[in-house]
Fold this sequence. Notes:
The structure holds two protein chains of two kinds. Chain A is of the alpha/beta class. Chain A has two domains: 245 residues, P-loop containing nucleotide triphosphate hydrolases (Rossmann fold), CATH 3.40.50; 77 residues, Malonyl-CoA ACP transacylase, ACP-binding (Alpha-Beta Plaits, 2-Layer Sandwich), CATH 3.30.70.250. Helices cover 35% and strands 30% of the residues of chain A. In chain A, strand 8 and strand 9 form a beta hairpin. The radius of gyration of chain A is 25 Å and the shape is globular. The two termini of chain A are 36 Å apart. Chain B is mainly alpha-helical. Chain B is built from eleven helices and no strands. The longest helix of chain B is centred in the C-terminal third of the chain and has 33 residues. Chains A and B meet through helix 2, helix 3, strand 5 and helix 4 of A and helix 1, helix 5 and helix 11 of B.
Amino acid sequence: MHAIDVRNLTKQFKVSIKDQKGFLKKIKNYFLPKYEILHAVNDISFSIPSGESVAFIGPNGAGKSTTIKMLTGIMMPTSGNIEILGKDPRKNRKHLAYQMSVVFGHCSKLWYQLPVVESLNLLSVIYDLPKEEYLKRKNLLVDLFSIENFLNKPVRQLSLGERMRCELVASFLHNPKVIFLDEPTIGLDISAKATIRDLLRFMCKKLQCTLLLTSHDTDDIEKVCDRVILINKGQILVDDSVENMKNNYIKKRIVSIIFDEEFASVNFDGVKIIESMPHKLKCEVDLTKISLNKVVDNFMSTYHLRDITVEGPALENVIETFYRQNR
Amino acid sequence: MKKYFRAMLCTISQSLKERNQIFGRLIVFTVIIYLFCQIFESINSSVERIWYVTMTEGLILSTTTLVFQIVKDIQTNAVAYFLLRPVNYSLLRISEAIGIAILLYLVLMSWGILFLILLKGIFVASIFSTISSMLIGILSLFLYVQISMLIGLLSFWVIEIKTLIYFHLTAAFCFGGLIIPITYYPPLMQKICFCTPYPWILWWPGSVFSGILVNHFIAFAGWLGWSIFFGFLNVLVFERYKKALVMNGG
């Protein structure tokens, strides 16, 4: 059984057309407004097996949040089917609430005025956790997320990084099988981001929890997720593993070579020099024109090489290319 | 109900830690009682009047910022995230607000009674009517919270919600009889006041507290009727809001 199964999901909104030019047209539009149908999500299908971590990405207005809202059951789709753990989230929202968790980077799950521990206690009552199980779980999570030092501080006094760690503890408290994360590292510094990513990765592997993450930060995707679903204008453009995405969608590699002797010149079709020094060369190889093996072989037959490194494209560049192509 | 009771206890324990909020209200309350004592003394008004004002002002100062909390939740779409928890948003917020209001009310009124005895040296009503008025005050707070909840929820449709809040407060002060008991009003004005929910928030507990005779059966029926009415409206409005949220995402 898939943890998340989406079939032909569509969401349309009726929006009024506002940019009418001319005074009379504006008056007419005020009394007799015209509408158009906006396809926020347009016939998308995907499924996520239990325990998989998936990044759900796309530019602003692509339909990510609308999809997440439909998956969590707080928005009704125009058509299509959604199954979370085999159940329709619209009809079983309360039941599924015990089995899933949602973390929004911009919205707190904790009570602003209450100390963290009080919020956790209250959440344990809300999720009907038996006291012993709750205490065991709380102690484990507090230890893992290293929040014991600010457990008795009110949430309003915490830094953003501390708060996010507490948010994650609160989200994992009831042992969810599916977790939705909407920009969990937004506004955090580099070190806090790294901590959150490591913890997320660790928790998902440890708990065999299915994770759906939306983020504009490609490091979040690379560090936490196994698979990427890229959405734009309500349609899925790519549904592939992070590795495949990096390797298959940009056919260019950066090759850096350090020579023992002085390097003269290079003249292959498909190789563009980026940086050249007497003993060092950095070039871009276009794999559609020449294979990497051929380039390396050519250099090795001509020169003595001290070191050679091949860099794949950064995920950021891959995603940027997709966004540009589908603008 | 355990969840909501726990939420109420949590907010009470938290409010107890926020001493500044309690002390601030105590100072304002003390100043108000003292000022009204001086005013009523200068016009040779009966001592019951100051006891009446103590109760009504105590109730008003015990009310919370629930309406602003709801408005914020709606504007930031936080309500949608509450729907993802196995808990009823309205009941949770009402429990929290009632918890804080009851705590403030008990603290303020305990001090108010003590201060009045020190100031006037007379205890106007019987112990029984003081205790019963305290309980009636809690019922009043419940009705006030219900109205606040409704106004907060309406902020989804009414953009200029501050006007509605202002109208609600003014109506509570005028029709509820904040300073003068409604029974002192002209007959037509009295009839208008009793057609609103506000007398059951201020006049009823204030009158019992100051020893004015009240028909408790009618008063309770009035309170119950309005509580059921606002409870029903709150459910209706919240369901309409939820429907809009589910269809259009807020």
